[in-house]
Amino acid sequence: MNILIVYAHPEPRSLNGSLKDFAVARLKEAGHAVQVSDLYAMNWKAPIDADDSLAPRTGERFDASLASMHAFENGLQSEDIVREQDKLRWADTVILQFPLWWYSMPAIMKGWVERVYAYGFAYGVGEHSDAHWGDRFGEGTLAGKRAMVIVTTGGWESHYAARGINGPIDDLLFPIHHGILYYPGFEVLPPFVVYRTGKIDAARYAGIRTALGERLDKLESTTPIAFRPQNAGDYAIPALTLREDIAPGVTGFAAHVRDAAEAR
Length: 264
Description:
Layout: E1 2-7, H1 15-29, E2 33-38, H2 64-73, H3 79-90, E3 93-99, H4 107-116, E4 146-152, H5 169-182, E5 187-188, E6 192-194, H6 202-217, E7 235-236, E8 241-242, H7 260-263
Parallel strand pairs: 1-2, 1-3, 3-4, 4-5, 4-6
Antiparallel strand pairs: 7-8
């Protein structure tokens, strides 16, 4: 299997750096081909702007979506964007690894998404009609691939529980899981989360490596999160709201995940 790790941490000697190196070694030992996009080491340019296109500037107002579409369709994307898109095409599975900073991914990784997910590559694809609102949320150019998040946080696991002060970890990761990964078609695996990173001794570190190794060994067989496909009948189109008979009484993020009875 071809595996791409998109990694964002500025310190190679960090816990994240160690776990990234462990993951690469474990995956290669299992016979997988691995590429790593180490965003800080690459000095990745995070802002999306007119310089992402090789076309000369015209002085017109910059429109990120239209400029992205024009560059993608006409072979005018900057080389760094093209390289990352080629990695995504190559990969069977993508792993996003990052520390949870201010309730989300680091800015440099968000910038990777914004620039690499070009119009026509990851969004703006497919028929838009009264029966089908684009190829997205379960469909799209990256359908058939798997994705998983490896995330670390200094907070305790209880802080991210159902009634924890930070909110449930699944809710915090929903914009990444559902919006960044499921939107262009990935099957999204449950995340691997390391809590309370400031309190890790040798014994706990060994346990984390063991648990991560077991997750990596099962990338091909792990059951993905049962998000609802957009165009399979659960949503009214074009309103894109759940039909009244689907998950009645359930609101919020949980409504967009099929329960165990539906998934059977």
